[in-house]
Amino acid sequence: MAASDSFETRLFINGEFRPSRDNKLFRVNNPTTGEIIAQDHLTSPVHEASEGDVDDAVAAAKAAFPTWRDLSPAERGGYLRRFADLLLEAHETLAQIEAVSSGKPVSQFFESFVAADFFRYFSEAGWNAQGTTSLHTRDHLNLSLRAPYGVVACITPWNLPILLFAYKVAPALAAGNTVVHKSSEKSPLAATFLATLVAKAGFPSGVLNMISGYGSPAGSSLASHLQVRCLSFTGSPQTGQKIQAAAAASNMKHVHLELGGKSPSLVFHDADIQAAAEQTATSLTFLSGQSCIANSRIYIQDSVADEFIALFKSAFSSARAGNPLDAAVSRGPQIDEQQHDRIKSYIEIGQRDGTLTLGGGSGPGLFIEPTVIEDITETSPLMQEEVFGPVVAINRFHTEAEAINYANQSEFGLYASVFTRDLDRAVRVSKLLEAGTVAVNCTSPTMAMDMPFGGYKTSGVGREGYLHSLDNFLETKSILMRI
Ligand code: NAD
Prior knowledge:
alpha/beta; six-stranded mixed beta sheet
């Protein structure tokens, strides 16, 4: 990072940077070294939004709404395209910010590319906000219109702060809404750097307001705010429940929730066992297991279990750990001490309810070894709760029906994988798995951005992904015209 790349760490409200009303500041640690980040332009502590700041941001978004709504999709698209270009120009800086503040290896950093794709796509897709017409009622021409909600709140988690910002904010703006985006208290640096890019892109004042803050007061104030008409959230199910309750208790705002996962991989005897082992291992190594779609449960058919487990362990333990700034490193630390300790407690549970056969240790600092627990009871919290770390549970099955039954014995339903060379089996099993996405002969982080993405059961409400996302940010109105 060049010293000249200085950027703001204040809140971005109504087109200008300003300090937090309560003068509260975050300190950001480097999870690899444990040091408070204090190099070049990263010396400024980040400002934390208070309830008053949320009110100001919402008021700015509300004031900006009529003008933004009345721009044509092409005019709005111009701003989105400019922002996409700025994201690409900032790729190196964003990669380094994420490496030093979140422990994400630069070798795996891709978020700015996907985020730029999203902004580019939605710079055109605003034209798709169209309704329907009907002549089916006698003496009437009936129309339905799609219209923006007004002020939209977007709340994102720390693990993919740039990608998930784009996933929500690009379609919300393209649909004609104005936005207040709140980033996670655990990843404020990437979000404040994005605010610098928002300022450079020259969006009209108040159209896109960027605040960093804790769940309470900043997040909860947005969830219960009477002027916010739609809220799109990605994070844990626990927070999703609070947001849904706050939304219902305040003004029934439209809520869209992308929540956690406990994604199973089913590996059948007729699969390419080597490929299945390598891919499932990568899924767990990616972001050090801090991914909502990591295949944290693997079910392996008993006849090939020993072969698969040996190959899996070899692939899982081969990821090179080290400083995420080093391009040869593919495994970084966990984001913070709280997350590290939480994962350790699940490893202890795994040792109690199953057999530890790889890893289990931690250090230096916040690194956790790739860990395998085998033959674990299905009711164990390790099988039922999201660990969000490099820990996998591997159980064996005998029949296809048994495997499907195990996979579906979870409150989560975000993502699942099936490895088999039998096409009939692939289709049959995919249809029965309770998951929003099923990957056949591949696994996470593979995603298709143009497909609906979201969760069954406790993994969420609604779907995102290109045009599905646009739909989340549009109201529908029917107009009945007597002719
Ligand atoms: P989290 O729920 O703790 O926090 C997410 C966001 O919600 C943060 O910005 C936080 O400040 C805010 N928040 C917390 N309490 C709030 C409240 N009461 N009201 C409003 N906002 C509040 O989640 P996290 O630890 O940041 O992220 C990890 C979780 O996110 C995991 O469960 C993971 O599976 C999930 N996730 C899901 C997806 C998906 O697409 N389904 C993608 C990435 C992460």
